[in-house]
């Protein structure tokens, strides 16, 4: 995987993960079900050693269900790896996480003397706090716009034989790979100011045109779709009456489209699917 991390941040995050790893038994990585590849941290695989790995596909209510199934199957083929799709619309699956992890770690979690310590990781806004609250059974972590303050490592009691380890400093700023950054921006993982809305809007429309054209025509009641993403965005701007100096305001239109896309108003969609070739890669 050729992702160019910003070297300073990357080294810091790697150091932190290495530091924490000896004191945990399993890694839970929360991924955005719409972009499990782009929202993943490629450092974990090499740093986890022999620890099992649970990939949690979060916000699965927003993702294409058939593609989420493919991702689960793909991840489950990997070494000591399990995968699970969760959503706040039905929290029962998320609640099975401790039991699933127990199956992967038969020698721990039988008594409070050797509890299971599960490191929880994931990019900002992917749903970590939401999952923590679901597992604890009450709201202990704040959800949504959290200030980026450094908090101390937390050991969260789920049961006497199962703890979550939530550690700061392991999140990574994203990649310099443009495709990954656009997917992260469209999903809401990258802050609003990082990329221009008209650019992210164009990226999103271009992808929708290729993969889910019917989602645009349906949502915006279009009879026909222009060929280029730029023309589609102009058409949407005109339809919404977002005009500036006689031209459609593409920033405003892009912002509207991204807001709707992030909220799932266009329907369920995934930004990436597992490549068949991954299966044959070691
Ligand atoms: N649609 C949808 N939104 C979710 C789901 N889980 C979390 N969210 C939303 O995603 C945003 C970020 O969640 P949060 O738990 O704070 O993410 P964190 O930054 O990883 O801790 C919040 O607005 C949540 O309400 C889900 O299953 N479905
Ligand atoms: Mg959080």
Biggest β-sheet strands, sense, barrel: 6 strands, mixed
Beta strands, count: 8
- Please tell me how large the radius of gyration is: 20 Å
Please report the first level of CATH classification, the CATH class of the largest domain. Alpha Beta
**How many domain regions?**
2
Which overall shape is indicated by the principal axes computed on the Cα atoms? elongated
CATH topology of the largest domain: Rossmann fold
Report the β-strand fraction as a percent range.
5-15%
CATH homologous superfamily label of the largest domain:
P-loop containing nucleotide triphosphate hydrolases
Order of helices and strands: HEHEHEHEHEEHHHHEEH
**Average pLDDT rating:** 90
Low-confidence stretches: none
| Helix/strand/pairing category | alpha/beta
What is the name of the CATH architecture of the largest domain? 3-Layer(aba) Sandwich
Distance between the termini: 12 Å
Largest beta sheet: strand ordering = 3-2-1-4-6-5
* Structure annotation, total helices: 10
What percent of the residues sit in helical stretches (DSSP H or I)?
A: 25-40%
Q: Which ligands are bound?
A: guanosine-5'-diphosphate, magnesium ion
């Amino acid at each position: 995987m050729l992702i160019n991390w910003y070297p300073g941040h990357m080294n810091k995050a790697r150091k932190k993960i290495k530091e924490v790893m000896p004191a945990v038994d399993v890694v839970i990585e929360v991924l955005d079900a719409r972009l499990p590849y782009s929202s993943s941290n490629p450092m974990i695989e090499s740093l986890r050693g022999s620890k099992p790995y649970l990939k949690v596909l979060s916000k699965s209510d927003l993702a294409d269900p058939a593609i989420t199934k493919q991702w689960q199957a793909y991840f489950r083929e990997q070494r000591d790896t399990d995968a699970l799709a969760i959503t706040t619309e039905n929290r029962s699956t998320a609640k099975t996480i401790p039991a699933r992890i127990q199956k992967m770690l038969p020698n721990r979690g039988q008594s409070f003397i050797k509890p299971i310590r599960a490191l929880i990781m994931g990019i900002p806004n992917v749903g970590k706090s939401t999952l923590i609250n679901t597992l604890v059974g009450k709201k202990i972590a704040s959800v949504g716009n959290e200030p980026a303050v450094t908090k101390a490592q937390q050991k969260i009691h789920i049961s006497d034989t199962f703890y979550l380890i939530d550690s700061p400093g392991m999140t990574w700023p994203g990649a310099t790979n443009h495709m990954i950054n656009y997917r992260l921006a469209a999903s809401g993982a990258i802050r609003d100011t990082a990329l221009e809305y008209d650019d992210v809007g164009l990226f999103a429309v271009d992808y929708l045109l290729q993969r889910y054209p019917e989602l645009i025509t349906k949502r915006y009641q279009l009879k026909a779709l222009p060929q280029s993403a730029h023309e589609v965005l102009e058409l949407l701007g005109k339809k919404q009456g977002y005009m500036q100096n006689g031209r459609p305001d593409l920033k405003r239109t892009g912002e509207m489209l991204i807001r709707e896309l992030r909220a799932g108003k266009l329907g369920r969609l995934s930004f990436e699917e597992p490549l068949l070739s991954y299966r044959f890669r070691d």
